[in-house]
Amino acid sequence: MVTKTLGIIGGGQLGMMLAEAAKSMPEHISNIIVLDPTKNCPASRVGAKQIIADFKDKNAIVELSLQSDIITYEIESGDSKVLESLHDEVSINPSPTTLKIIQDKYLQKQFLRQNNIPVAEFDIIESLEDLEKKIIDYQYPALLKARRDAYDGRGNFKIENQSQIETAYRQFSGRQTMIEKFVDFKMEVSVIAARNIHGEIATYPLAENIHKNNILEITIAPARVDSKISSEADRIAKKTMDVFHGAGVFGIEMFVTKDDKVLINEIAPRVHNSGHHTLQSSDTSQFEQHLRAILGLPLGSTKLKHTTVMCNILGPKDFVGRYKPITLEQKDGVYLKMYHKDEAKPQRKLGHFNVVDEQNTSDVDTLLEKTLEIKNSIKFIQD
Ligand code: AMP
């Protein structure tokens, strides 16, 4: 069997877990190279070779393509134009064309709307006057969003009243923006979906996401919704995978509205934080699934074997610098994964743990209680 060299743009925690999954598939992948600007990035700490350069560095991307048989990414910010130009030389998935659409929230939402996939009302904003005019129909609150290079909510401004319009507009000065209707949701959910290069599609059961300060804190799988909502979310996710070309795992974030409608908030064309539970809850982790998808292997089972709660370990506020190793007693369904990031910063994703109902005897509330107890027991001590 011919083994391949896998190139990944981005070597953070997602690249690290992809590299770990790749190492468990030696019959298909023999080498892993990541492109990442941070020396000793997480993926390099688990055996991936590293090219140290910016994600958008053209020469570095070309170098990566020369050394790799297949290329994928763990971040959306790679240069899609450069990737597009390399598409004939090396297999790149998800496709650079899909990446280009998704990188721009406006193009992404437009694409979804054109394909009859439900999203909140939105429009392009061309100037301050344009915003002043359009917001009248949207009413307050409304969201002004930067179209590109925004994540963890950092590109959003919630405009609560007329007096904030100018401040919001100036905050994104020099950047293209869009306006979006504020969705008074009752829950945020996501579907981890995969499509392999032959067009086979598979989705994991709907997961529920709880954010704090715009950053994912907890994922509960399965989501606490009735089956009508989870079927609708699954239908929307499968349709999304059908219309976006290119292979791989996608994280599809959605809102469940107070009147039980499901709308897509945002799509990540990559493995996703809300899919980390699959490391223990499912036979096929999202990382293995992504590799299966881009290698053209049949997709693995997405059945949720155990109810699982995932909790992110974020750098505490008021703490910067090296910290003593975080340890947890890993028994009774508790699994810790740290990301080999030596320095903590407030809100930086440093690890996560999963609380898994391995005996299938607990209820979600008990799992959540256990999760919060563990979370509160984690202490960062200066090293
Ligand atoms: P984003 O980076 O655009 O995915 O947004 C980050 C977070 O902002 C989401 O997880 C939501 O909690 C919130 N958000 C984004 N768009 C909307 C919206 N249209 N209505 C209400 N909340 C939103």
Features:
binds adenosine monophosphate; 29% strand; 383 residues; globular; D-amino Acid Aminotransferase, Chain A, domain 1; Rossmann fold; alpha+beta; nine-stranded antiparallel beta sheet; 11 helices
Task: Describe the fold and architecture.
- The chain is α+β, with helices and mostly antiparallel strands and 383 residues long.
- The protein has 3 domains: 89 residues, Rossmann fold, CATH 3.40.50.20; 61 residues, Dna Ligase, domain 1 (2-Layer Sandwich), CATH 3.30.1490; 193 residues, 2-Layer Sandwich (D-amino Acid Aminotransferase, Chain A, domain 1).
- Helices cover 28% and strands 29% of the residues.
- The protein is built from 11 helices and 20 strands.
- Strands 10, 11, 12, 13, 14, 15, 16, 18 and 20 form a 9-stranded antiparallel β-sheet that branches. A 5-stranded parallel β-sheet has the order 3-2-1-4-5, sandwiched between helices.
- β14 and β15 form a beta hairpin.
- It is globular, with a radius of gyration of 21 Å.
- The relative contact order is 0.12.
- The mean pLDDT is 96.
- It binds adenosine monophosphate (AMP).
- Adenosine monophosphate (AMP) binds next to β7 and β15.
Secondary structure: elements and pairs:
Layout lengths: L3 E6 L3 H11 L5 E8 L12 E4 L5 H10 L2 E4 L6 H7 L4 E2 L3 H8 L1 H10 L7 E4 L2 H11 L3 E5 L9 E4 L5 H7 L5 E5 L3 E11 L5 E3 L3 E6 L2 E7 L5 H17 L4 E10 L4 E7 L9 H4 L4 H10 L12 E7 L6 E2 L11 E5 L4 E2 L4 E8 L7 H14 L6
Parallel strand pairs: 1-2, 1-4, 2-3, 4-5
Antiparallel strand pairs: 6-9, 7-8, 7-9, 10-11, 10-12, 10-14, 12-13, 13-16, 14-15, 16-20, 17-19, 18-20
